[in-house]
Design brief:
Layout (H helix, E strand, L loop, with lengths): L5 E5 L9 H15 L3 E7 L6 E5 L2 E6 L2 E3 L2 E6 L4 H11 L3 E4 L4 H12 L3 E5 L18 H18 L4 E4 L2 H10 L5 E3 L16 H7 L6 E6 L8 H10 L6 E6 L5 H10 L6 E5 L3 H10 L2 E4 L8 H8 L4 E4 L4 H4 L6 E4 L4 H13 L1 H14 L5 H17 L11 H5 L3
Parallel strand pairs: 1-2, 1-7, 2-4, 7-8, 8-9, 9-10, 11-12, 11-14, 12-13, 14-15, 15-16
Antiparallel strand pairs: 3-4, 5-6
Length: 411
Amino acid sequence: MDKKLKILFTIECYPPEITGSGIATKRIATGLAKRGYDVAVACPGKGLELEKSIEDEVKVYRLSAIPVLIHKDYYFSPFARRFMGYLFDEFNPDLVHISDHFFISSAACLEAKKRNIKIIGTNNFHPDNILPHSKIKRDLAIYKILERMFWNYFVKIFNNISLVTVASETASQIIKEKGIGRPIYIISNGLDLSYYKKKLNNKRILDKYNINTRNIILLSVSRLEKEKRIDLLIRALALIKNKINFQFIIVGRGKEKKYLSRLARITNILDRVIFTGSVSDDELLQLYKLSDVFLSASEVELQGLSIMEAMASGLPVVAANSMAIPELVKDGINGHLFRSGDVREASHKILWVMEDKSLREEVAKKSLKLIKKHDFKNTLDKLENIYSFLTYKDKLPITDNKEISKHVFLD
């Protein structure tokens, strides 16, 4: 493929807003730009005007947007169609890569169809990442209705594109069951594994957060939202607070911060919990390097970016046996899994790893071995293969779906 393609990514939540899908999309867009592709991203801004910038070699179009009612830290772009003709005329993409099925992506799909431009889509969506913010109880009928509406709209958009990528086998199975009939290609979101080999001076961060490395350092990295279940980890650690010395570092921000701080105080472990808020990439890497065990109780991971980062940093992982997490954490090999929502079992598994230093070291080595297949170079290579296939028909993507070539060119 001599010509480097012009690729337009669309997404409703892009950095500096922190979500796994946004971070993954930015890494991929930036990685492709560094390989010589002309890459643009269309995403929400924070005002009523279109804003354009260059960020890490990527053209970023931040469209007119308004705050999300149920989560005012985030914005969405219900007016996206107004800008698509202009955006397509100016950037003139060869291919559109949607990262969700919301306003900007659906508007881009309509415009791409008019211009006979191929579309692929990556799905990191699950209603459980959104609906908990509505404060509607899961057992109410309205919750089920909204859940069904989200999935129906997703299927409508993604069944009208050329090809779908997902980050895990679990994510693939979920969307097949929901009715996706397009070819599905599994591509890890990937990590630049060389980044996690950097040597850093940790003294400054030890002082900044008052970290005492004579304790066992436990780490969690996520948005502080209900579906991430940081509350379960606090309750589990409260059960073992008299058995071993530890500090629990919680990286991230979100609406649950006040509740989690109050819970830590009620359970008498607030003096052992460190809330860092959002941190820089270098600080995050330092915290991974300082820690002994990584914890996750999330029940909504379609891959688990922070778990991958912990593995790349050589950490054993204790996590909920939920959704795609078992594809990363092999119970008894590079960590331990506990039943989702089971505080007592979580406390037992965490204590087991904390008490045995030799076990931690052995498990950490296995994390480093298992994460190798998620090297970001492989992610970009596979995407380039797909882009080439869709545009020039010169290569067939490696996939279990033997009917892929028959299906891809139906639209």
